[in-house]
């Protein structure tokens, strides 16, 4: 049986200007649930109301109307936030602290003991891969490292529910891949993850379900695999076929009046090419790869 960790009913938010005049309707009667243990993606272009929705869930913003329950409690009950981890769009971390000091500081906010703080910091720094940089001040961190220490900070209280606002923003493909692996790791630990993103393709392979928002309205909601399935085509994958075999297969298809079959080689996407190039550069430093080599290694990596 599934269990809703987040229940949103008819949620709306209107931002008003200084004189109380209506300025923007950021969220328009949104209703949706997030189930325990799933990775849920809130997707949509900039300004579609994703951050506003997350902030209302945390109780940082008051809704204009509607109901929300998080972990069985109303959003306005901030004590529920003890079981929630939050990575804001921009992490406001102290630039002059290092990774250890940062995690220690946030551990204190949750009244963790000295021993617990030290143990938790070790685990998280290991998990996000900042072991070698843990004593460097955050002002020296790259964008990817900043995102990773932000994630570690969001996890300091070992939350059941993790809200990530644009976790991959500003990251290169390698950093994005690593962030997605961390999200999968959270899921495997039984946590529920809600992430927001305007980089739709970046997150499609980590989300179980997605909601697409546009101008504050819910446009699409469902399982990613079902939403992206192309129902009126069949894809057959085989090792490369000779002209002779292709002709025979065509003959069979003709017999069934299927005339528009296509024989093509699959193309890898740029992300795969990039990740493979990085991996192989590590193995053979200083080499440049020709088109033929890239194609050959892509064939090898598919088997
Ligand atoms: N504090 C605010 N005051 C007025 N308008 C705001 C405020 N915050 C966000 N908005 C507006 O609300 C809409 C949704 O913003 P936001 O939730 O940040 O979208 P997203 O996170 O999807 O990019 C946008 O039109 C934005 O300009
Ligand atoms: Mg946002």
Give an overview of the whole structure:
The chain has two domains: 4-228, P-loop containing nucleotide triphosphate hydrolases (Rossmann fold, 3-Layer(aba) Sandwich), CATH 3.40.50; 235-303, no CATH class. α2 (99-109) packs across α3 (114-127). It contains ten helices and ten strands. β4 (65-70) and β5 form a beta hairpin. The chain is α/β, with parallel strands linked by helices and 303 residues long. The structure holds adenosine-5'-diphosphate and magnesium ion (MG).
Features:
single chain; 303 residues; alpha/beta; Rossmann fold; 2 domains; 6-stranded mixed beta sheet; 4-stranded antiparallel beta sheet; 10 helices; 22% strand; globular; binds adenosine-5'-diphosphate; binds magnesium ion
Total helical segments: 10
- The low-confidence parts are none
Helix/strand-derived category reads alpha/beta
The topology string of helices and strands comes to EEEHEEEHHHEHEHEEHHHH
Biggest beta sheet attributes? 6 strands, mixed
CATH topology name of the largest domain, in short, is Rossmann fold
Integer count of domains: 2
- Give, in spatial order, the strands making up the sheet with the most strands: 6-7-8-3-9-10
Rg calculated over all Cα atoms: 24 Å
Q: What is the residue-mean pLDDT, rounded to a whole number? A: 89
CATH architecture of the largest domain: 3-Layer(aba) Sandwich
Terminal Cα span: 38 Å
Query: What portion of the residues fall into strands of 2 or more residues?
Result: 15-25%
Give the beta-strand count. Answer: 10
What is the share of helical residues? 25-40%
User: Which CATH class of the largest domain applies here?
Assistant: Alpha Beta
Shape: globular
**Cofactors and ligands:** adenosine-5'-diphosphate, magnesium ion
CATH superfamily of the largest domain, by name, is P-loop containing nucleotide triphosphate hydrolases
């Amino acid at each position: 049986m599934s269990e809703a960790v987040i229940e949103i009913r008819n949620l709306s938010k209107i931002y008003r200007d200084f004189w109380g005049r209506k300025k923007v309707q950021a969220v328009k009667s949104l209703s949706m649930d997030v189930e325990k243990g799933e990775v849920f993606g809130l997707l949509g272009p900039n300004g579609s109301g994703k951050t506003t929705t997350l902030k209302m869930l945390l109780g940082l913003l008051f809704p204009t109307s509607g109901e929300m329950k998080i972990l069985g409690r109303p959003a306005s009950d901030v004590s529920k936030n003890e079981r929630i981890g939050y990575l804001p769009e921009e992490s406001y971390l102290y630039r002059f602290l290092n990774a250890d000091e940062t995690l220690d500081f946030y551990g204190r906010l949750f009244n963790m003991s000295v021993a617990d703080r030290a143990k938790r910091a070790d685990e998280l720094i290991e998990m996000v891969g900042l072991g070698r940089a843990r004593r460097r001040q955050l002002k020296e961190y790259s964008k990817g490292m900043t995102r990773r220490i932000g994630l570690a900070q969001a996890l300091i209280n070992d939350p059941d529910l993790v809200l990530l606002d644009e976790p991959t923003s500003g990251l290169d493909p390698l950093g994005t891949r690593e962030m997605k692996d961390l999200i999968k790791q959270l899921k495997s630990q039984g946590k529920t993850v809600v992430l927001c993103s305007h980089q739709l393709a970046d997150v499609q392979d980590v989300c179980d379900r997605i909601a697409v928002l546009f101008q504050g309205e819910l446009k699409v909601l469902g399982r990613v695999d079902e939403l992206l399935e192309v129902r009126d085509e069949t894809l057959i994958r085989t090792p490369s076929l000779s002209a002779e075999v292709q002709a025979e297969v065509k003959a069979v298809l003709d017999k069934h009046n299927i005339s528009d079959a296509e024989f093509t080689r699959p193309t890898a996407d740029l992300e795969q090419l990039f990740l493979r190039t990085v991996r192989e550069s590590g193995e053979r430093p200083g080499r440049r790869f020709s088109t033929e080599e890239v194609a050959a290694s892509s064939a090898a990596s598919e088997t």
